[in-house]
Amino acid sequence: MQQPALVLPWLESLQQSLEPYPMAWPATVLAALVAVAWLANFVTKRILLRGLHSVIQRVSGHGEEGRRPLRVISRLANVVPSVVIAAGLNLVPDLPPDLVRVLQGACHVWTMLTIALAASHALDVFNDFYERRPDARNKPIKGYLQVAKIVVFVLAGLSVVATLAGVKLLHVLTGLGAATAVLMLIFQDTILSLVASVQISGDGRIRIGDWIEMPSQNADGDVIDIALHTVTVQNWDKTVTTIPTKKLVTESFKNWRGMQESGGRRIKRSLYLDQHSVQFLDDGQVAELSRFALLHDYLDGKQRELQAWNAGLAAKGMAPVNARRVTNLGTFRAYVEQYLKHNPRIHQEMTQLVRQLQPTEHGLPLEIYCFTASTAWAEYEAIQSDVFDHLLAILPAFGLRVFQQSSDAMFMQLHDQARAR
């Protein structure tokens, strides 16, 4: 009970000792106010929030789920120091009234911006919880929450303007409503670009360093700058294209970031085979191809399967023409599949397909669909070239030929030889 009585004389003694020095006492009180604000922030974040986190973690049973709502509260905790300083400035003696108003206004601006950021984060948390629902994929609410974010930040911005101008928010809204039509007409492009910039930064569709492809704007290269009105792309031929920011919201484009982050780049190319070279394999050819280690298991299993099938046909008295046999094309497909599976430069965790496409006048397309283990452009091209170099070179071992349209050079050569005779 006697502690306050001891503290007050000590403060009076300190004040009297600082009287010879102008502004020393106000500076001391101001420093004490900052220390109290820091202490309030420390107690709020290090004690109250940790205790609250422990309680939420026990109730929810999941640390991460309990931590997400706490991040919103952590942002709101940043309001405490500004509230303490704003309230304590009136206790600092000899401060100019104008300076007090400026500092209190700055504290109020900080409070409003912090609340706006906390509200934005709360909307993100709400969206995270909503996306766990089974029907969230069919009924997304992210777009509506982004509109709500825009409204929150617009209101926060108007509140900041009202605070700095020393007027009521209602007066700012009234004046803004009268000038809205004129402002929208004058700053139409800026407003559209601003909205597009908010969307781009909000959903992360474009980032510095992304490889984007937008044929309508002649853009195919890396993003090197994102400004309010334009996004600058350095094309692969070292030219530079500037794209209006709003175009990236209203028009479609391709972003290759997903490919780069996945760790694999797709190969989708066909070998065009001459259909006249497709045939059945006899026993000698099967024995010859069995020397390939990649085909040993396939041919062994295929032979057992066909022998069992054909034995059943023979038991039924059917003619040998109904028997099943191995084809060179099917064997080659099996070889390509095993070759891709055993190639360390092919991504083994991604889709691998070797399939026939619809035959055309250019031959029978045998499409190889897989992903390289590297996304670097030069290395990707090298891997793709090595794969098709090998397949083209080994085709004759299976009795297959690629289809290639002949030029008239061969016929001209034969014609010249005939005339020479």
Task: Describe it.
By secondary structure, the chain is an alpha+beta fold. 59% of the residues lie in helices and 11% in strands. It is built from 15 helices and 8 strands. It has helices at residues 3-18, 24-60, 63-76, 79-88, 97-130, 142-165, 169-186, 188-203, 247-250, 257-262, 283-289, 296-315, 328-341, 377-394, 409-420; strands at residues 211-214, 219-226, 230-235, 240-244, 254-255, 265-273, 353-356, 364-372. The strands form 2 sheets. A 5-stranded antiparallel sheet has the order 4-3-2-1-5, with no helix packed on it. α4 runs antiparallel to α5 and α5 packs antiparallel against α6. The radius of gyration is 38 Å and the shape is elongated. It starts with a helix and ends with a helix. Residues 1-7 have low confidence and may be disordered.
